[in-house]
Write a structure and sequence with these properties.
two-stranded antiparallel ribbon, extended, mainly alpha, membrane, transmembrane, Brnchd-chn_aa_trnsp_AzlD, transmembrane helix, about 100 residues, about 5% strand, AzlD domain-containing protein
């Protein structure tokens, strides 16, 4: 029963990606549209991060997780190595949870 939806999603993903390769040279966008697409990608990524950092299921995730994400964001913005970003975010979240700020 679940195999059919998986196959449909796989076919749709393949068609979407393959369509981009086929249409790359046929479609041209104005500079304004390119700027809007770039901005929309950033907004979508920010919304995904905010949702993941602030919500756990239907409830608020607590203060430790958003603080860890904030630390990771600042370190990534400062171009810290990826391992440092991940370890610092995990340590921040773990220490705040240990302190009782779940």
């Amino acid at each position: 029963m679940t195999l059919l939806p998986i196959l449909i999603l796989a076919a749709g993903t393949f068609a979407f990606r393959f369509g981009g390769v086929l249409l790359r040279d046929r479609l041209t966008f104005s500079d304004r549209v390119k700027e809007l697409l770039s901005t929309s990608a950033v907004v979508l990524l920010f919304a995904l991060v905010a949702t993941s950092a602030l919500a756990k299921g239907q409830d608020f995730a607590g203060w430790a997780l958003p603080a860890g994400v904030l630390v990771a964001g600042v370190l990534a913005w400062r171009k810290a190595p990826f391992v440092v970003v991940v370890v610092a975010a995990a340590l921040t979240t773990a220490l705040l949870r240990l302190a009782g700020l779940a």
